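Our preliminary data section would be incomplete without showing what the modeling component actually yields. Below, a chain of 116 amino acids is followed by its predicted structure, encoded as tokens that our downstream tools consume directly.
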Amino acid sequence: VQLQASGGGLVQAGGSLRLSCRAPRTITSVFNSYRMAWYRQAPGKELESVASITFDGRTNFSDSVKGRFTISRDNAKKTVYLQMNSLQSEDTSVYYCNTDPPSNKWGQGTQVTVSS
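Predicted structure:
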């Protein structure tokens, strides 16, 4: 499943961004059954799962973003969101959304750059 993330950009440290990811037509009929997640990968670093959400809204966060990021989903719109607050330079990465566990097909991702 290839999900396309959007909403990235350049932001100053301490700022906020909201990422969105809408499910493609191929999975909209079963989207609600998937646990979804946001992942990120910085240059030279491994892919990291930062947040996940079950179909009924139970969430989980990595320690690095806990308390700063919020994940949500709108099952009617087949969309997953990542609200990122208090951004830090360490959050600079390409962000992807995928199922959890992830499928082997990754979308393009969206670049988030935090300037200090």
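The longest strand covers residues 93-99. The CA atoms of residues 73 and 80 lie 4 Å apart. Preliminary results of this kind motivate Aim 1 of the renewal.
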